[in-house]
Q: What sequence folds into this?
């Protein structure tokens, strides 16, 4: 008989969720220690490897992808994501490298919103607004993990208490990472709550398809399947409107180099300090799985497509990054690009945006795939 905590953590004989289409069972998962947190709790690093040699490493702290290697057009494997060397660096210096962000990705204005006629007040730390789920959001928690019996799949589970960072309801959330033999890194979210709450998790890897540590992403070609984006006001809070990308630096309807307009002086680029905007992906009705974006690095021949059920994708080009990263490499502004599938910022205060409300008895589900290929 399973205890309530075991059931909450998903430690049962039920199969792991994952990318069933095209997924094979030839991949493997291995585990190794990755240090201890200040309270003595251990952190584990899991290595997911597929039949072709691609590898994804995921640690329990932050449910974070610490490494992802993919081949170029000549079959040479190289690192695709920014990262750090050890747990202490992730705990004290990370800029959300590869993390699972939640409960709510992005900002909630003034750290408050109305829910069923009651004002909810969130923890904001030293900031005016709630950001990425609060000072101790999901990216700063040690998740429980269970590897699949076969194949390269790993489920991580977190139980977030009622009132955690001010959010109502005890929330039990799973994220399952699957690495398929056709080089897809798949993420499946599932969550339940004991009280009405809001939820907007996302994945926060910084990608660089060149395979050259510290290289800028200006030469990467990006296409986004979006005609509109959600603009910021001067305080970098969304205004609640949808605005056409036409005639702006945010027009990625046709592939263009990320560096072409990244220093544009138009208002939205000045407010964001570069690209830091959420796009409304076409075909949102029904939340079907569809392509959100395509990123290419012509020199290496690598390409990556993001497919998702989410209504939006946040484009962020590491505009203020300045630190020493993995292997002593200097990470500078624009040396990585995030493509974060999610709902829109401040949706709990913006009825014009798709709802992020989750009620008891309902199950939140979301799927995203980062599909790697060569050109």
A:
């Amino acid at each position: 008989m399973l205890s309530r905590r075991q059931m909450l953590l998903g430690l049962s004989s039920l199969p792991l969720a994952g990318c069933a289409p095209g997924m094979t069972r030839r991949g493997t998962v291995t585990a190794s220690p990755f240090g201890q947190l200040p309270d003595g709790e251990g952190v584990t690093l899991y290595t997911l490897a597929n039949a072709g040699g691609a590898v994804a490493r995921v640690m329990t702290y932050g449910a974070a992808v610490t490494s992802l290697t993919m081949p170029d057009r000549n079959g040479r494997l190289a690192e695709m994501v920014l990262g750090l060397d050890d747990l202490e660096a992730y705990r004290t210096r990370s800029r959300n490298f590869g993390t699972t962000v939640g409960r709510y990705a992005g900002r909630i204005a003034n750290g408050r919103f109305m829910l069923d006629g009651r004002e909810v007040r969130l923890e904001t730390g030293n900031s005016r607004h709630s950001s990425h789920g609060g000072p101790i959001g999901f990216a700063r928690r040690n998740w429980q993990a269970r590897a699949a019996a076969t194949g390269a799949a790993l489920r991580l589970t977190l139980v977030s208490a009622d009132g955690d960072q001010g959010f109502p309801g005890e929330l039990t959330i799973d994220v399952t990472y699957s690495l398929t033999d056709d080089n897809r890194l798949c993420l499946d979210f599932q969550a339940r709550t004991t009280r009405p709450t809001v939820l907007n998790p996302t994945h926060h890897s910084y990608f660089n398809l060149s395979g050259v540590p510290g290289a800028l992403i200006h030469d990467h070609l990006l296409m986004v399947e979006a005609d509109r984006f959600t603009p910021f006001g001067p305080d970098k809070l969304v205004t609640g409107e949808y605005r056409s990308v036409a005639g702006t630096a945010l027009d990625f309807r046709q592939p263009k180099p990320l560096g072409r307009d990244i220093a544009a002086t138009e208002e939205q680029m000045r407010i964001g300090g570069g690209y830091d905007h959420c796009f409304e992906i076409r075909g949102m009705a029904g939340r079907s799985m569809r392509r959100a974006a395509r990123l290419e690095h012509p020199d290496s021949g690598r390409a990556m497509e993001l497919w998702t059920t989410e209504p939006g994708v946040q484009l962020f080009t590491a505009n203020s990054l300045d630190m020493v990263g993995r292997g002593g490499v200097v990470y500078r502004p624009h040396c990585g690009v995030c493509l974060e599938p999610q709902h829109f910022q401040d949706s709990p205060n913006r009825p014009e945006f798709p709802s992020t409300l989750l009620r008891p008895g309902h199950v939140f589900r979301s799927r995203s795939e980062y599909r790697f290929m060569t050109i």
Notes: The first helix runs from residue 4 to 8. The domain at 4-374 is CATH 2.70.98.10 (Beta-galactosidase; Chain A, domain 5). DSSP finds three helices and 29 strands in the chain.
